[in-house]
Task: structure prediction
Amino acid sequence: MGDLGIFASLDPVALDRACVDAVFNSNDPGKRDLIERINSRHGTHLLDAAEKLGVGSQKYRLVVIE
Result:
């Protein structure tokens, strides 16, 4: 998987959701293995559980800084 840049947030759940979404929406053919790894470890279920526990929110807004 190629470099997607640097992501930062004060909300760890939003940060993880943004990173997972960036991988899933990438055009990089190398994403297949990473997506398989995320899914085999129930990565998106962990985000649901963390949000339910009040750790953060899966809602985010991307701000690009150049």
Observations:
- DSSP finds three helices and no strands in the chain.
- Helices lie at 12-24, 31-40, 43-52.
- Residues 23 and 31 are 6 Å apart (CA to CA).
- The chain has a mean pLDDT of 95.
